[in-house]
Amino acid sequence: MIEKITIKGGYDKQGNQEPLKEVIIKKGEIFGVVGPTGSGKSSLIGDIEQLAQEDTFSKRKILVNDKEPSYEDRTDPRKKMVAQLSQNMNFLADMSVGDFLSLHAKCRGASNTCVDKVVKLANTLTGEPIKKEHELTILSGGQSRALMVADVAIISNSPIVLIDEIENAGIRKHDALKVLAGHGKIVLVVTHDPVLALMTDKRIVMRNGGMEKVVGTTPSEKEISRKLNKIDELMLSLREKVRNGEVIEDIEDIEF
């Protein structure tokens, strides 16, 4: 069981040592990865996904429970420790939601009874209903990501989840992160979205390809995130009303 991962600092784009020498992330924690475009956020996520051992451009090293992962841990798909959810993820398989989840459950050695649990959980994360008989290829972006969040939480045994830019995914982002962390996952989310960034426990600030510092989220920032999330929920609700052809009669009917 993975209790924590440790990111050992390497070098930035200019070959200078990263200001941050070590970052420890424990099970159930949510870490943000923030910084300007081109600051190295995706590079950091890539190092974690590969469980890098000073063999990438950054020369970072990832430890699992204070130990170097074995070659098998890094290369065997059956032992894959990291699941990644991205903004541009869509299904290509020509099968139904139910068949896909059943197949994944079988591959993971999980009970087929979890299929209904995944669909039920996914439907709490998106305003567009998902049914087991729906074809994967007709799912919207929001439905796809809601389904994958629920799948990772319930079926996947990957203890580390990397989320890359889901700010426009059409899902209840606050709830999605809570679901993953609540299932004992280590969660890292790359984001420019203040709703997500301020709901994390801590955030790694990237600059010039290096980890510059870790910022702990303050109680006041958590409160700001809660208020922003209400606005986010409102936008999701309005999107569904417009999509369904409803007319928004009066701004006073909208609860902020």
Describe the protein in words:
The chain has 256 residues and is α/β, with parallel strands linked by helices. It is built from eight helices and nine strands. It has helices at residues 41-49, 71-75, 97-108, 114-123, 141-154, 173-182, 194-197, 219-243, and strands at 4-8, 22-26, 30-34, 61-64, 82-86, 160-164, 186-190, 202-207, 210-216. It has a six-stranded mixed sheet, with helices on both faces. A three-stranded antiparallel sheet has the order 2-1-4, with no helix packed on it. β6, α6 and β7 (186-190) form a beta-alpha-beta unit. α3 crosses α4 (114-123) and α4 (114-123) crosses α5. The longest helix has 25 residues, at 219-243. The protein is globular and about 55 Å long.
What keyword list fits this structure?
single chain; about 260 residues; alpha/beta; 6-stranded mixed β-sheet; 3-stranded antiparallel β-sheet; 9 strands; about 20% strand
Mean pLDDT: 86
* Rg, Å, rounded: 19 Å
Shape annotation: globular
Strand content: 15-25%
Terminus-to-terminus distance:
42 Å
Largest sheet: 6 strands, mixed
Poorly predicted tracts of residues: none
Extended strand count: 9
